[in-house]
Design brief:
Blueprint (H helix, E strand, L loop, with lengths): L1 E6 L8 H13 L6 E3 L14 H4 L6 H13 L2 E10 L6 E8 L5 E6 L10 H4 L8 E4 L4 E7 L6 H9 L4 E5 L7 H15 L2 E5 L4 E2 L2 E2 L5 E3 L5 E4 L5 E6 L3 H9 L14
Helix pairs in contact: 1-3
Length: about 260
């Protein structure tokens, strides 16, 4: 299975429509990959709170249309990062990630459960999701679990994803550089405790005055880093063996020894 993480530079001097077209073109260039992953809120910027309402869109809005077409052109599964979703004309905003099938159809969406900001910013402006979301990918024959940025700090969400069958944990993010060490540490921790691959894709550059960590990373079920990006815009491509997840869990069956919560059957 080949996965490509597109670490996008969310430049403040680039119009949202222009960035959308540029990113769609990058996705189309990934023909031959099985799964392509984009960062959190790349159309507008994860910290550009003042622009959230302006660029909010429905699930079938311009980002979904353009990125769905790009997934279809490249014939890839596309985790298109997240958008600011407005669920209805006067409804709440959500930080919503979109997963497209190779035919370009929206296959799943995930509304971020843990909102960042401590009663400010995203936490004050957006509603919280309440559903654990997984998807079975045809072709690579593996199950992915979806999470977004701040979710990475909450291991109980990843336990639920594992219990729902997740073998690859896909995390889109707009993680700040000043906490970049946490990003790398937590990505490896989630892989080790879940005995699953972690594909964590972040943004590059500076937006809304916040320097981004970059350092998108792919971690295997033993916690080994298979590939890691730098701090600029970059395409990170790696070949994975989905069967390694079950082999790891069989060789070192720690998940069966869980005491708190429901053990995996």
């Amino acid at each position: 299975m080949r996965a490509s993480l597109l670490q996008i530079d969310v430049r403040p001097d680039e119009q949202v429509a222009d960035r959308r077209s540029r990113v769609a073109a990058l996705v189309r260039e990934q023909a031959g990959a099985d799964l392509v992953v984009l960062p959190e809120l790349w159309p507008v910027g994860a910290f550009a709170y003042q622009d959230f309402a302006t660029y909010a869109e429905p699930l079938d809005g311009p980002t979904a249309r353009e990125l769905g077409a790009a997934a279809r052109a490249a014939r890839v599964w596309l985790h298109a990062g997240s958008i600011v979703e407005r669920s209805a004309a006067d409804g709440p905003l959500y930080n919503t990630s979109l997963l497209f099938a190779p035919d370009g159809q929206l296959h799943r969406f995930y509304r971020k459960i843990h909102r960042f900001g401590f009663d400010q910013g995203e936490a004050a402006m957006m509603a919280a999701g309440d559903e654990i979301v997984t998807a079975r990918l045809s072709g690579p024959q593996t199950t992915i679990g979806l999470a977004t940025c701040y979710d990475l700090r909450f291991p109980e969400q990843f336990r639920l994803l594992v219990d729902a069958g997740a073998q690859l944990l896909v995390i889109c993010a707009g993680w700040p550089e000043r906490r970049g060490a946490h990003w790398s540490l937590l990505a490896r921790a989630r892989a080790v405790e879940s005995q699953a691959y972690v594909l964590a894709c972040g943004t590059a550059g500076t937006h809304a005055g916040v320097q981004q960590a970059g350092r998108s990373v792919v971690v295997d079920p033993w916690g080994e880093v298979l590939a890691e990006a730098g701090t600029g815009e970059e395409v990170l491509t790696v070949d994975l063996d989905p069967s390694r997840v079950e082999k790891t869990r069989a060789e070192f069956p720690a998940l069966r020894d869980r005491v708190l919560g429901l053990p995996k059957p």
